[in-house]
Amino acid sequence: MQRAEPIIELSGIAKHFGSVQALQGIDFRLFPGEVHALAGENGAGKSTLVKILAGIYRPDAGMVKVGGEVVELRSPTQAQALGIAVVHQEPMLFPDLDVAENVFMGRHPRDRFGRVDWKRMYREVDQLLTSLDVPLSSHTPVQGLSVAEQQLVEIAKALSLDARVLVLDEPTAALSAHEVDELFAIVRQLRERGVAILFVSHRLEEIFEIADRLTIFRDGTHIITAPVGEMTTEAIIRHMVGRELSNLFPKSEARIGDVVLEVRHLSRPGSFTDVSFQLRQGEILGFAGLVGAGRTEVARVLFGLDRAESGEIWLKGKQVRIRSPRDAMRSGLAYVPEDRHQHGLVMDFSIAANVTLPILKQVSRLGLIDPRLERKIAGDYSSQLHVRSSGIEQLVNALSGGNQQKVVLSKWLATNPSVLILDEPTRGIDVGAKAEVHRIISDLAVEGLAIILISSELPEVLAMADRVIVLHEGRVSGTFARSEATQERVMFAATGQERG
Amino acid sequence: MTTTSREVEQAPKRAQASQARLLSRVSRVRELGLLIVLLLLILVVGIQVPRFLSIDNFEQILLSIAILAIVGVGETLVLLTRQVDLSVGSIVGLTAFVTAYFFKELPGINLVVGILLGCGLGLALGMVNGLLISLGRVPAIVATLGTLYVYRGLVFVFASNTTLQVNASDVPASYLALATTQILGIPTLIIIALVIAVIVGYFLRASRTGRQLYAVGSNPEAAAIIGLRANRLTFGAFAASGLLCGLAGVLWGARFATVDATAATGLELQVIAAVVVGGVNIFGGSGTILGACLGAIVLGTLQNALNILNVSQFWLQAIDGAAIIAAVILDAFITRWLQRSLLVRRKRA
Amino acid sequence: MKRVRSLLFSWEALLVILLATCCVLGSVLSPYFLTGFNFYALTSNIMEIAIMALPMTLIIIVGEIDLSVASVLGLASVVLGLIWQTGHPLWLAIGVALLVGVLAGALNGMLVTRLGLPSLVVTIGSLALFRGLAYVVLGDQAVSNFPAAFTNLGFGTIPGSEIPWSGLIFAILALIFAVVLHFSSLGRQFYAMGNNKEAARFTGINVQRTKLILFIVSGLLAALAGIIFTARVSSARPDNALGFELDVVTVVLLGGINIFGGSGSLLGVVLAIFIVAAIQNILSLLNISGDIQSLAIGLLLILSVLGPNIARRIQVAIARRRLAAGSSRQV
Predict the structure, then answer these.
(1) Cα distance from A240 to chain B (closest Cα, Å)?
(2) What pLDDT does C11 receive?
(3) Would the CB atoms of B282 and C120 count as touching at under 8 Å?
């Protein structure tokens, strides 16, 4: 490979969000005509880098050079103008319009009278789609497209911009094996044409198949960049997760009791298949896996937000039908969702109001809320969980991420559940708060609560869980007892590798 | 990827292409449905009362909705961008009254000047709406609800300071002629409405800006990411709506001859009803001028049919309301059916 | 929900100041303003709007809207008139009228919750439908031979005061709604739903059922308003309260309820009702016609949203300038 000038050069890039440092001291170079993979666990900083290149975020520090010139990427439009095309994880299309218009919105081809040249647009988009071997017609309304097809449209859009740089952020997350093949054919074509491709993924087999070089991020820092040929799976995983398991996560030994939750052959087509497991009192069951593996989907079904197509749920020895969150709560389940902004908290409510929201009956007398009861319960949980605030009347949107998460925990603990499902409970909170949350979880287990811990942070899962179940593309791909679970083993199962 | 799998895909792709083209006419399905409803209506009523099928009668129908259709075109532009304009009735009323008064006070004035005055006033009122919403960040419902009151109040202020009513005898015949003359046997009003519909429809179809209106309403976030100027487009839509209301007001004065301060009260709901029946999505992003006009025609035909069938006048509004509800329910089911059928198509492929 | 937003606190304060200003202005402009009779004149003809504004407040807080209220009022009115006119006892007529309100509200509620249709369009449709049905029921007739006891309830006052009976009814209802909204667990659920529908659902709140009930209550109270209206004007006509729905929404928005849901207080709405009544009253005393009074109300509505927006933009601009000045110093 000739050493041409890098088309993108980043030096010393840093970015923080609140108290969380997403990226630190990032140096990175991307060359034309190469497929460069960017790997790392969730939270390693990959998406942040992508958004910086896309012009959506601005780095706090560092320099960005595009095509040899220093630039300040201030907006997506500007990034596009510089030849950087980004396909984000979630497609951003116009559902009411067809594929052709989605590709060309804002720059419709025009005839000599200045009118939109529809024929030419459909023709060009069809040509583009054919050249990429995408089995879609330019006339197709986007509304009916699957996520995979939408992604292909996004890619076509990026390509129609004649980009010099194409950034693909987890493009294969929603694609079938066949669709991935098609995508890779396109990527190879582009490489021939001299386009620089940044391919963000943590699917190792794909990285081996398509990438020339590989960069690994961990905790927001650059770990290593090397030709893919020089790396082995073990090495990659080691670089991705290799951190010392320190005493950040104090776990006490809990007495593990009877089976309190049993799931038998639960299936929800399109989300997960044939998931079975048992959960005991005092046990922390870790759910590991990559994003999109189906863990949250299982939680949603357990909590009545979605319906399973087949399978059984048994609580305390009795089969239950859970059709709504209310049903789930009545059966003693509690669910701390992944996204505390969208699902976990009412941001404009106070701490007290949030904590009592699921237990309004308990803090009301004759239908009227008893402010003293509310204050007492909220206050109790607030101090028990050490929520740092100016008082329980403070609005939760003024709290730090860690304290917000504690409020969510409080709220669900107030429902006195027997099973607590935690979905990424320490995402987006700083190290100190993380440790506190872990202590809380550990204490809850000691008190007899049965806990499902869904987490993409391996160290967290390994330190907290008594057992680990790994999901890969909707199926259980591995079960490990605490003693036999190692980061490598779990990662292998999570990425679908076969290992002893 | 092997060659064989590539070959295997060609044939279905061609079939898929034509299927896609058919499905892309989804919005056309809506308009087709309207056309069918219209034809059914005409047939059913026509059989019972042959008089219904006369050219004269169709002309009556079109005349009765011409002005409504013009306002509807403007409202469609606004709805496409995911906004709503509730002040259209007041703008039409204000411009109608001012224009009529203008012609009354200055009888010698050129007809065109008067028309420009009305349109200009409408444009100004629409721009105020646009500024409140795009610059002032006032939600469209609140802003246009407020201007509905303010503009209507202005008509009354104007009226109380000038004359309570402008009569047919006060204005020059040339003005009234706007509503009564014919060009090649077709009433001028209908032609004007047709021309407007064609022009705006064409604009929506053939210009980048027109297509961007759809984008802004379909997915505002995606539109922002590709750099579309939502503020400008929204302002433009409201300004255009105001301009068209102004024209409608001028024509209103000509058609109804006697104009007082209550002119066009309640028009906004009639207009929204017509365009919603016509398939324009209240949440933006889809809908056509053709659909909006068809919606107006369907409702107008319905009204005419009820009159001819000697159905009590009093059923009119109830049936209008039922039509709106039916249209919204139908749209919801069509959308759901579409998503389900496309899902099935994908599973098969 | 107590003071969900600090801004909200100041909104009610603003309304109080506005109301006080109106009263001062009124008493300055006319010696009759502070009389009991004027109080009666001021309140009596806004009571129907006031009563309908109560459930409208809740509906907007949970993120929906009901534009059909005035039409339900009209429909209930003519049903009342028809049943009375055909010789049935008054209590039956009233009962059926209220039932009509419940059914109308249920229709709206089902379309919005079960079929998932947008409430704006649905209630525009039912606005026309119900008003139309009112015309079907009574045509262009009017029923006006109501007994004095009934009509007295509409325009009469509590003996020994100038407070209209309708005012008392409103006061009782307002108290109930205020307690429910601000002190009950149900009210907490309303705010949660309007703020974050998903989060509310996640805590086991049955969003659909709650909204359905709200629409039914809206219909019921609109029917009640219809009965009162009919009594007050001594006439049941299909065009009773034509166009009132916009007045109801205006009063709610003016009261500080966010059109997108999730915030606002009933106190604000009550204050807004009296402010609007006061302004209309003052303008009447100044011999300004009712139609022009709407101009003032419309302006007030726009300013009530525009004002805080502009204030916020100025705040942000100042903060941004300060930040830029600060950071430039670091470089």
Answers:
(1) 30
(2) 84
(3) yes
